[in-house]
Amino acid sequence: MKISNTFPVLKHLNVPNIITTLGLVFGIFAAYHLTQRDLRMAIIFLFCAGLMDLFDGLAASKLKQQSEFGKHLDTLVDFFTCCIMPIWMVFDLLDNSLAVFAALIFYCVCGLWRLANYSLVGGGKHFTGLPVPGAMSIVTITIWCVVTYPISIWVAVVMFFVVGLLMISGIPLAKYGMWQKVFGVVGLVFLIYVIIFYR
């Protein structure tokens, strides 16, 4: 008897979906470290989750294992790691004024709508609007700067609104284009800095 007959969902078990699931695991570790108020480790695990989001797409393309299941799985993981986790960081680490609360709701709603829309129209050679992993990178670096340096909370408020608008915009961004390489390099440099220098 095939194990997929007993557990039908396992028919979707492949390399890209395992990588996507690993992204969720990293997100859970990030959440745990937030509960311990350890911003450094939370950021490290959150950016590792973001790397999994990049690698699962590359693996699916190279191995020709794209599927509807994989696309929906990726969307669910992205909502947790890229929409919920950044606002959790703010709730846990920064002052929660009405303006901050409004910015967080706006960011999360925009991320949700962008992911739902991508589930319907995703594919092709371009993204429409800023993908949520890119949005997560921007706001996470902003949060870190506000927590670490004497930077006004209003910088984070404005950034959440701006990034939210970018996610639901009609701006075309080439998949695996130069903008992604720039985001990747900036994210990697930031991650190395956090790992080595930030305590």
Topology as a string of helices (H) and strands (E): HHHHHEHHEH
Please indicate the count of domains: 1
Mean of residue pLDDT values: 87
Beta strands, count: 2
Strand order of the largest sheet: 1-2
- Counting DSSP H or I runs of 4 or more residues, the number of helices is 8
Name the CATH superfamily classification.
Answer: CDP-alcohol phosphotransferase transmembrane (TM) domain
The percent of residues in helical segments reads over 70%
Poorly predicted regions are none
The major beta sheet can be summarized as: 2 strands, antiparallel
| Second CATH tier, the architecture | Up-down Bundle
Basic shape? globular
Distance between the termini: 52 Å
Q: At the third CATH level, what is the topology name? A: Four Helix Bundle (Hemerythrin (Met), subunit A)
Strand content: under 5%
Task: Tell me the name of the CATH class.
Answer: Mainly Alpha
Which structural class should the secondary elements be placed in? Answer: mainly alpha
